Predict the 3D structure of the following.
Amino acid sequence: MLVATALTVVRTSSLFSIVMLSGVFSLLSALLLVSMDAVDVAFTEAAVGAGISTVLMLGTLALTSRMEKPSRRSPAIPLFVVTVTGAVLIYGTLDMPNFGDPNAPAQTHVAPDYLQQSVHDVDVPNVVTAILASYRGFDTLGETAVVFTAGIAVLLLISGLRRRRDEDDEEERKDT
Amino acid sequence: MTFEFIVGHINYWLFIVLMMTGLYIVVSKGNLVKKIVGLNIFQTSVFMFYISVGKITGGTAPIFPLDMNVDPDVVYSNPLPHVLILTAIVVGVATTALGLALIVRIREEYGTIEEDDILDIERKVASDENRLHGEAMGGRA
């Protein structure tokens, strides 16, 4: 279903339905994340990916246009690049451990320590929260810095919009 | 290439297919909003790839019982990828917002959000400037 949604995004040219499909894609991926035990990630993805992103994109569509023009370039070169990249990546996965393998390298280094120690160290039932706020608190601090910077940048880019529009209108009125 | 190997790796391949679909949209489509959607698909598939690396068969979500009596027999999935991806999702929406704001500005400046049209306008402006410079130099350039 995820693949079908993604492929439909490639084919569709109405931007409104593309935005809706991207919301659908986010929700489906949230379902998949729940089935892979990542409940925290799933509800963040559902709230942020399907909620906020969709609202932001709809806002952009309201300010810009609704339809996509067909591209003049031929799709052969991108298709070739994408196929080659995908083939190389799939070749790279051949060395990886099987899905759900408890002895995979990702499972045997720091993760068991976190699971065993967080009860004594942090005393929070949700291990994800414990790691996020305590062990890797600096990561989260960096994340908030990134979000803050992005927020300021968006405000700077958008803020003059209405003012400039009003000025343009006044100039037009003077001209006529 | 046994059956077990294929079943154990098909999740990675699914995510790579999704990722490449996103990459294809970013590279080949001219519409800027569509490019952002492609970028979102790309990054969501990377998230799912990470989470699938942290999954353990028979494991459950890494949340302890409220009384904190942890049963040593219960297998919990790896919480570390979950934390990393939580951070990545939030950063991802920040980049999306910034990209969309840039699109709004571009639309204001050029009146279009199609890459081809923007390139045409840029070329026209560049050649006009070139000609003006040439005239200013006495028609030699």
